[in-house]
Hints:
about 15% strand, Heat Shock Protein 90, 5-stranded antiparallel beta sheet
Amino acid sequence: MKSRIxxxxxxxxxxxxxxLLSRSLLLMAVLLTVIGLFQxxxxxxFIYQNQAKSIQNEIQSVPPxxxxxMASNSSVNIPNNIPNNIPNNFPDNTPNNxxxxxxxxxxxxxxxxxxxxxxxxxxxxxxxxxxxxxxIDSLGNFTVLSSPPTNVxxxxxxxxxxxxxxxxxxxxxxYKVVTQTTGGEQLLVLQPIQTRGSMLGVxxxxxxxxxxxxxxxxxxxxxxxxSLLALxxxxxxxxxxxxxxxxxxxxxxDTVAQIDAGNLAERLPAEQGQMEIDHLxxxxxxxxxxxxxxxxxxxxxxxxxxxxxxxxxxxxRTPLTSIHGFLEVLLRGAxxxxxxxxxxxxxxxxxxxxxxxxxxxxxxxxxxxxxxxIQLSEGELDGIIKEMAPQLRLLAGNRKVSLRLTSxxxxxxxxxxxxxxxxxxxxxxxxxxxxxxxxIQLSLDKVDxxxxxxxxxxxxxxxxxxxxxxxxxxxxxxxxxxxKYGGAGLGLAITKSLVELHGGTIRVESVEGExxxxxxxxxxxxxxxxx
Length: 531
């Protein structure tokens, strides 16, 4: 049952197996046909040439004077036992009826042959059956020496120039295939005859090509039969080989069929012993990795958007609720009481400021995400910090602020954005340090791959489990304390975006109960010594 199903797969016209099999067999059939055609033409030429050579050898085995004697006595009965070794001094013009009784080998005179043609039996001289023999002398006289009874019509006669070419000194084997008047073909062989340096003429032997054609057809039929058997055997042998060759491709198809949007972790086998299939599998795996990354990024983006909307709604709801409550108090008559009116207005102003900062931060983050613009210029980063020092000390209150800056450093940065980075980190340190015992340290150093800005405090520290999420939007390690100081969990997210916009990195180290350190590292590109 399985073998039948597999065989049906090979019969599907648009399947790769069927196309490979059919095209391979078609190519083999074309090649065998071409080989058969060339073999037929080569064998035809070879057989005709061998037959012509055999006829030439037969002609050369007869003494030259015997051929002249036959031509001169073609109308007279020639004895049946004329020897092959007629002496060269045999009179060329001696009539047959005057041959003496004591001639060589005792040739009897006037003894007719029972099966001779025109009174001459060529069988004793010529052993090729059904051959027509003619003699053409140097003057162009055409004399038929022998014509078998089965031959129909007169022997073919070539142009005079052909016979003159045959008697040329540089003679080579000359044979032609001519068409009979009856429609059949004949093989015609020309052989010059000469004796004692003089050219006597040309012997023309004509035989039918039908036996040769029959042999060629027989060989062609045998070749075609063997070719057909080879095609059938090749098909039967090629099917399992093709099936085994396509196993890696079938595995890829099966694996891809199991992959969907929820199962992108599946990977294709990349080493199956076939270079092209392995390259295909590697390409598929790369595509799957990119798809998986894209799906994960999209999933994370959707989750961040969901959290962003929820947190933004929550952050905006709190001040709106507070403002709404104070307005209700005022509408109930508190507006006529100066002290309550003053407290309500101050509280609403504080909440509105908080809403304003939150909206500004949201707009800034959206702008950084959408189309961040930055204008880098070369300057001294320590000069920016020194310029902001009075503002930072005022923001710190009674906390201790110390600066340790390395001079003579210049780098590429956006002044406004770097000020915002420094303010965000310093404000974060102020929030999580004691108002009286707090100690905030700012340092600027040159490192191997750039400049590093450090903001260190001795505050309460951040639990280790919160560190990986500290730069996420709306994330607060201590929500109650951050809300007390108006924080919405966006400051560090904005800081990270601004640092990355400069091509730098930001990281945090913290020990709970001891303090926190933020490290901002800007790349070395654009840094030049100042001096």
